[in-house]
Design a protein that fits this description.
single chain, 278 residues, alpha/beta, 16-stranded mixed β-sheet, elongated
């Protein structure tokens, strides 16, 4: 592909699409427009803007592709399927996106993300970032774990597992667990139990907890065994997990701010309620 030379004033654009025909078609159209535009340079290396084409799953993948470059990357999504929480443009609004990017002044909308640190029995540390949520579950039997907030024991949990979500992730798995929906500009985490055991012997709070920015959540499994841990759409299995630590990450995800940026509450209404009849 032949393209104009890159300059300091050129916007570097990466285009990431899923395998659907409609997504590939839109990606092809964007490539053909930007490759001949001197104000843009197509490159998946060190982009200024990442265009995700598909749905929320595709944007999650794009986020993890560039999670080490969050300080200077902004994201924008085009959805080609069902309504997404991370996508501002529909597949028939490509021309509007192109025009908005041509008039872009670098403005952004920033949302908090989750920092995850897994400590294994052999001393290894596994670190990651989540845009939506992270969960821990025990494979063989009921999970028993102490829940600490700022190094103070809050409860002894027994059940299937625990989920910790970001505000943007509050509408995903967290909501299906009965958690609250948080506006994504609120810098807080949400801890939600997964099928906890509550009887005369075992007792937990039962409801989700909203944890402020400065606080640290620690999950300390009390039984040896195999555990599954998820970070967004990635799942890992580890034996003998000593501790999982959750905090709000020092970095944020930045989205392109445009006139097309949909109100979060509109997205919640459209996704879960639908049109409101008079």
């Amino acid at each position: 592909m032949t393209q104009m030379n890159y300059t300091d004033k050129t916007t570097r654009v990466a285009i990431i699409a899923n395998g659907k025909y409609q997504s590939k078609r839109i990606a092809s159209k964007l490539f053909s427009v930007f490759k001949d535009d001197p104000d843009f340079y197509l490159s998946k290396r060190n982009p200024d803007i990442v265009i995700s084409i598909g749905g929320d799953g595709m944007l999650l993948s794009a986020f993890h592709m560039y999670e080490k470059e969050l300080n200077h990357v902004r994201f924008v999504g085009i959805h080609t399927g069902h309504l997404g929480f991370y996508t501002d443009y529909r597949d028939f609004e490509v021309e509007q996106l192109i025009e908005d990017l041509r008039h872009d002044q670098g403005e952004k909308i920033a949302y908090p993300i989750l920092s995850v640190e897994i400590t294994l029995e052999d001393g290894r540390l596994i670190r990651g970032r989540a845009l939506n949520e992270s969960t821990i579950k025990r494979i063989e039997k009921t999970m028993v774990a102490d829940v600490l907030i700022n190094q103070v024991k809050f409860e002894s949990f027994r059940g299937d597992g625990i989920s910790v979500s970001t505000p943007t992730g509050s509408t995903a798995y967290n909501k299906s667990l009965g958690g609250a929906v948080l506006h994504p500009t609120i810098e807080a985490l949400q801890l939600t139990e997964i099928s906890s055991l509550n009887n005369r012997v075992f007792r937990t709070l039962g409801s989700s907890l909203i944890i402020p920015k400065k606080d640290v959540i620690e999950i300390l499994p009390q039984r040896l065994g195999n555990y599954t841990l998820s970070i967004d759409n990635k799942t890992f299995t580890h034996r003998n997990v000593v501790k999982v630590t959750y905090t709000i990450d020092r970095k944020k995800i930045n989205f392109v701010s445009s006139s097309n940026h949909t109100s979060f509450w509109e997205r919640v209404r459209d996704a879960f309620i639908g049109d409101i009849e008079p």
